[in-house]
Design brief:
Length: about 525
């Protein structure tokens, strides 16, 4: 399967997942709002998801896929054997880690939410909810192994569609248990763990249906597993800088007034829509393709693939960043402002959204650059860069908090935390690119330079038009008529999209004919057994 075809397969299903997530967030905002229960729940949600994104979807995937692809060259049974070895070790390690974390959760909560200790009710609720959600890590990590295996053989669909279960089960939980904010928080926590079991069963079924069912064996430290473990450790930090920084944001936000954690969490959910659809799709589709290109011994082709992936990510990421930076209040007002989510909550969350939006293009680029390391089985370099990035982000966020508090803006200090994360996301890009250049694995070609300038020109025109249109339509937001508000927001977004695509065609950033060709492009054969078909 070609990179672009795989991108649209993953991106399409991810977009569907994000839309179901939107409805989940809409319901959660109206029921939970930004109070004590919401703050406690978002910690319980963030904790297993941090480890999931670092180890399951991050380090494990980027370390497993190249090794699995190499084993696949030796035949399907050899690849299956390696997957079974990985499953055995992963299951035992995750089970022990999950039990350990559930046992020490009260002590661990003092570390990750030091500000909650002053409120015993919030602290105890955060501990209880985190113990309920933490088994999700084990379930979703095992699901990730199966999904990574399917991705490596060209079946991207099952893994990309599985997160929809997460959202649907949470929606059902909110519909059934919503008499109070605390009850709704408990329902969502249980729904998280149940959704992990459902996703695991779905991917096990998909693997079996594709002829790739694997059995559990007693764990053995084979040479391949030792190599996998050596790659996973550094890969966790190297591929998860943004997730670690966002987690640090939550720790620091716990020191601020009630609601700060919730504001950052809602803001994260909103800007993760383009990041998830575009960034994850790029990483998922690029890693297997780039791994094959690197193994084939064509460095020039690898550089070209990296440049085209950056180009494509920026083309889609820039307008998303501009939209979220310029009209966060209308978006939040239309999406969330009802029930327990007030206008003041929208204004506070909007400050974090605008700051986080600056990181979207950086995330697109860093996704490609980290994949460039991992396709060459180099996890050490991004790991060392990540250590510096995380340290700088922590210092910058703490400094911004001090400045906001010192000058009397404690209730908006959470925006400073988000801004620090965005700035260090760009610093991470520069350090990754510099290291790749030193290794001879990255060079910006002439086409990418031209495309970036044309994308920037198209984006500037779009931003100017959006500024004028949003100012004219803002009086139609918060008129308490849903259809009027939705129509006003849709007009802002629609006009901006038309202007951007029109300017992209005029400037040559992306011709409309190229987009049409891309959408109907047929898949190339996937590496692997002949009976493997598209997911």
């Amino acid at each position: 399967m070609s990179f672009k075809r795989a991108f649209f397969t993953v991106g399409g299903f991810t977009l569907l997942s994000r839309f179901t997530g939107f409805f989940r967030d809409l319901m959660a905002a109206g029921i939970l709002g930004t109070g004590m229960a919401a703050d406690a729940f978002f910690v319980a949600l963030r904790l297993p998801n941090l480890f999931r994104r670092l180890f399951a979807e991050g380090a494990f995937t980027i370390s497993f896929v190249p090794l699995f692809s190499a084993a696949l060259k030796e035949g399907q049974e050899e690849a299956r054997s390696f997957a079974e070895e990985a499953l055995a070790v992963l299951m035992v390690a995750l089970l022990l880690f999950t039990l350990f974390m559930m046992l020490i959760m009260p002590w661990f909560m003092h570390v990750i939410t030091p500000g909650y200790a002053a409120d015993a009710v919030k602290f105890d609720l955060a501990v209880e909810l985190s113990r309920i959600t933490f088994p999700y890590l084990m379930l979703i990590s095992l699901a990730s192994l199966l999904g990574s295996m399917l991705n490596a053989v060209g079946r991207f669909g099952p893994y990309a569609i599985s997160p929809i279960a997460f959202n649907l089960i949470q929606i059902l939980a909110l519909l059934g248990w919503n008499e109070s904010e605390v009850q709704a928080a408990h329902a969502q926590a249980w729904a998280i763990t149940v959704s992990g079991a459902v996703q695991l069963m779905w991917l096990a079924f998909s693997a079996y249906h594709a002829g790739w069912s694997i059995k559990w064996k007693l764990p053995r430290m084979t040479a391949r597993i030792k190599k996998l473990l050596r790659l996973i450790g550094p890969g966790a930090l190297g591929g998860g800088v943004m997730q670690i920084n966002i987690f640090i944001d939550m720790v620091l936000a716990s020191l601020l007034p009630v609601g700060a954690v919730s504001y950052l969490s809602y803001a994260d959910r909103l800007y993760q829509l383009p990041v998830g659809v575009i960034g994850i799709a790029i990483g998922t589709a690029l890693l297997p393709a780039l791994s094959r290109t690197v193994r084939s011994g064509n460095p020039a082709d690898a550089l070209t693939e990296q440049n085209r992936a950056i180009e494509f990510g920026l083309f889609l990421g820039m307008p998303a960043a501009i939209g979220l930076a310029l009209i966060p209040v209308p978006i939040l007002a239309v999406m969330y402002e009802r029930g327990a989510f007030t206008a003041d909550a929208s204004e506070a969350t909007a400050r974090a959204v605008a700051a986080y939006a600056l990181a979207i293009p950086a995330y697109m680029i860093s996704k490609v650059l980290t994949v460039a390391f991992y396709a060459r089985e180099d996890t050490k370099s991004p790991f060392l860069i990540s250590l510096r990035t995380i340290a700088i982000n922590s210092l910058a966020a703490a400094s911004f908090i001090w400045l906001f508090v010192h000058y009397g803006y404690i209730h908006t200090a959470h925006a400073g935390i988000a801004l620090a994360t965005a700035l260090t996301a760009w610093l991470n890009v520069f350090m990754l690119a510099h290291k790749l250049r030193q290794l001879g694995h990255f060079a910006v070609d002439a086409r990418l330079r031209q495309k970036v300038l044309r994308i920037m020109a198209s984006s500037i025109v779009m931003a100017a038009v959006l500024w004028v249109v949003s100012d004219a339509l803002m009086p139609y937001i918060r008129v308490h008529k849903v259809w009027v508000e939705v129509a006003a927001l849709a007009t802002m977004i629609g006009v901006s999209a038309v202007v951007y695509l029109g300017m992209a065609h005029v400037t040559g950033a992306q011709r409309l004919d190229d987009i049409k060709l891309l959408l109907r492009r047929k898949a190339a054969p996937a590496d692997g057994p002949p009976d493997v078909s598209e997911g």
